[in-house]
Specification:
Blueprint lengths: L8 E3 L14 H6 L21 E5 L6 H17 L3 E5 L6 H8 L7 E6 H10 L11 E16 L8 H10 L5 E4 L5 H13 L4 E4 L4 H8 L4 E5 L4 H6 L3 E5 L25 E9 L4 H15 L2 H9 L3 E5 L1 H22 L5
Parallel strand pairs: 2-3, 2-4, 6-7, 6-8
Antiparallel strand pairs: 1-11, 4-10, 5-8, 5-9, 5-10, 5-11
Helix pairs in contact: 2-9, 4-11, 6-11
Length: about 350
């Protein structure tokens, strides 16, 4: 289990007409003083920030975590009057960006968008990580919950989870279930779902978002993915949502029952996003950042944009964020074992 810290959870949730936060090259970031080699003395919290702040996103541009990070960066830029610059450092399941953040000066000028990938899944499938997923960071707040949603091609003969289960048991091995690749959240959620449902399907790995496109095209039949990554297909009617992975129904898909209530009792599979800082950040700076993050996340404009992207906005205390990470670590541990994934 991970070390616990202090903590409270409150729910919060398309800013229109907003300019996106800036994205800079490494050279530009260095020129702005946002890439540090060693820790520097913290400035007084009252004057923070006195220069641009770097928000590392450990995923590529256009990913759901990146989109949410850009909303947060824009809102913090407005609140602070200083640019919050998104620095995408994707690759290796989020571990590249996380390592960079863990080594940054704890002066408040480098923050990290944390997520299920870099703090829960990757630590269980990559050996010799150069950072500890929890101990090298100071948890600030969760900012979003992203339910995994089970979707089907609308032309399939099943429109509910119960109908899917009945079809799968009558036609073992005949359903193609797409995922975004081995070890990705969609893969692990699919493995856990089929295990708990006791059905035989053909798991087909694709590269990233191609998996949902292949289900919409009919090459594969179903998939289970984070809602933000499939929200466009749902709105366009290209995919049909038949079940969600939360303990409760999604506030964004209120008419879609949970998988647990639809024939697979106890199934829970969700994702999340949050913000962390290097572990040695001073308490005054931490308190300043925490107050700003929770304030902008509770703003109705921010909630609207998060919801439009398929994420359920929220805030939390550090203790609650850590507790949530611990819970998710255990859930994904079961799925990783079922998938037969070995440490790389």
């Amino acid at each position: 289990m991970f070390r616990k810290q202090e903590g409270r959870i409150t729910h919060a949730g398309e800013l229109r007409g907003m300019l996106p936060p800036l994205s800079f090259s490494c050279a530009a970031l260095a020129a702005l003083g946002l890439i540090h080699g060693t820790a520097t003395a913290s400035e007084p919290a009252a004057s923070y920030p006195s220069k641009p702040v770097r928000l590392i996103v450990a995923q590529g541009t256009g990913s759901s975590v990146d989109n949410l990070g850009r909303v947060l960066a824009t809102r913090l830029t407005e609140d602070w009057g200083k640019h919050v610059i998104v620095d995408n450092r994707g690759g290796a399941g989020g571990t590249i960006g996380a390592e960079i953040a863990s080594r940054a000066a704890p002066d408040g000028y480098t923050l990290l968008m944390s997520s299920t990938a870099m703090q829960v899944i990757s630590p269980q499938i990559y050996k010799n990580l150069a950072y500890h997923p929890v101990q090298d960071f100071k948890q600030i707040s969760l900012i979003a919950s992203t339910q995994n949603v089970l979707v089907a091609n609308p032309k399939m003969p099943y429109k509910t989870v119960k109908e899917l289960l009945a079809y799968a048991k009558a036609n073992p091995g005949k359903i193609n279930m797409a995922n975004a690749g081995s070890g990705f959240q969609s893969h692990l959620a699919a493995v856990l779902f089929t295990h708990m449902a006791n059905i035989d399907v053909h798991h087909i790995p694709y590269k990233g978002g191609v998996s949902t496109t292949m289900v919409a095209a009919g090459e594969s039949h179903i998939t289970i993915v984070p809602l933000p990554s499939v929200i466009g297909h749902l709105r366009a009617g290209r995919l049909l949502p038949i079940g969600t992975g939360g303990e409760k129904r999604s506030m964004l898909l209120k008419d879609v029952p949970t998988i647990s209530e639809s024939g697979v009792p106890g199934f829970v599979s969700t994702g999340w996003a949050g913000v962390v800082a290097p572990k040695a950040i001073s308490k005054p700076l931490f308190d300043r950042i925490y107050a700003s993050v929770t304030q902008v996340m509770n703003d109705p404009k921010t909630r609207e944009l998060f919801e439009r992207q398929g994420a359920e906005p929220m805030t939390s205390t550090p203790e609650q964020m850590l507790s949530h990470i611990n819970t998710e670590f255990g859930r994904f541990s079961q799925a990783i074992k079922l998938a037969g994934l070995k440490m790389q």
